[in-house]
Amino acid sequence: MAQISENKVVTITYDLSVTDENQEKVLVESAEADAPMVFLFGQSGLPEEFENQLNGKQAGDTFTFSLSPEQAYGDYDQQAVVEIPKNVFEIDGQLDNEMLQVGNFLPMADNQGNHMQGKIVEIGDEVVKMDFNHPLAGMVMHFDGKVAAVRDATREELDHGHVHGEGGHHH
User: What is the reported pTM?
Assistant: First the structure.
């Protein structure tokens, strides 16, 4: 049976919980058998320690591990919460009020052209306050799951750096 290692396509199911401010575990995400997580090991963009915890496992193996903020998406950074002039969000001189809703994630780019997701946290008269921290920044993440499948990546998947077909990317 194939073991998880570099350039393998990995399919997993899992529950992800985080520790809240009361030190309680709260379920925030599940990947079930009907919609599993499928990724190219070693090129997933997932935290390195996440992949380290799965390395060497094979289909049928279960896993339970936790990642500290340092091992995952870092500490919460107050400087990543910024105020942006409201006129930046105008399209042809009009604000899109459907788009400008507290809690919405918007694709943005900085002055260097780097793309990132920002979450709207507050809308004022002149500015929109956005949070560019990863949604899981500052949180301890607890994974409990099972390896559903492991296979060799195709040449095309390796060339493109992501999974194709079922559970993956479609061109």
Answer: 0.80
